[in-house]
Design brief:
The protein is built from five helices and eight strands, in the order βαβαβαβαββββα. By secondary structure, the protein is α/β, with parallel strands linked by helices. Strands 1, 2, 3, 4, 5 and 6 form a six-stranded parallel beta sheet that branches. Strand 4, helix 4 and strand 5 form a beta-alpha-beta unit. It starts with a strand and ends with a helix.
């Protein structure tokens, strides 16, 4: 089995990637192969809206890294998406990646039946995380994936989704900020639970 995580952050190795790595580390405990893909490392051209993918299971755009990424998506048993929040939405990198997978959906759901999951991170406590998470989860569902959450029926609800924030506190000096998601213990535990639930879904298929 293989689980891949796709980071849409422009900041390589930072909060979104750390959260994704936390999920992958949990999955790897069961001897599952994992891979973290950081979109900032890849050349993905913009969708030209040629609509040829409405009749074909391939993209008309050539000469970039999308074919490689599409192959990785097809070979994976589970796909996790992660993005920082930009105006209650995903980042430009993630949105472009999602747009360029139209050929995997419009004519045929080429990822049908795989397990999917999503997570997000923002500076503010109420910075649009839930909307951003919903956008990625709806995308995964549209592609035919079975979407995992990070709930644990035995321990109760840890969180409705794996969402992090840098906002720590507020006092007379103003806002206090976390140095990074490593200090957001709720977010990291939600990521670990997400990893466990992904494994359960893979095994149940």
């Amino acid at each position: 089995m293989k689980v891949i995580a796709v980071s849409g952050s422009h900041r390589k190795g930072k909060n979104t990637s750390i959260m994704l790595k936390t999920v992958l580390d949990e999955v790897a405990k069961d001897n599952v192969e994992t891979e973290l893909i950081e979109l900032v490392d890849y050349d993905i051209k913009l969708c030209t809206s040629c609509n040829k993918c409405m009749k074909n299971t391939s993209c008309s755009i050539t000469g970039d890294d999308m074919d490689l990424l599409a192959t990785k998506l097809q070979e994976a048993d589970a796909i996790i998406l992660g993005s920082p929040v930009y105006w209650a939405n995903v980042s430009t990198l993630m949105k472009n990646f999602m747009d360029r997978t139209r050929f995997m959906h419009l004519n045929k759901n080429m990822l049908q039946g795989k397990v999917g999951a999503a997570l997000t991170h923002a500076a503010l406590r109420n910075g649009g995380q839930e909307l951003c998470l919903s956008i990625m989860e709806n995308y995964l569902k549209s592609q035919g994936l079975i979407v995992a959450d990070c709930r644990d029926p035995e321990r109760g609800i840890i969180a409705n989704g794996a969402m992090g924030t840098l906002q720590q506190d507020y006092n007379v000096e103003g806002f206090a900020w976390k140095k990074g998601v490593e200090e957001d213990l709720v977010a990291l535990e939600a990521c670990r639970q997400l990893g466990k639930n992904i494994l359960k879904l893979i095994r149940s298929k």
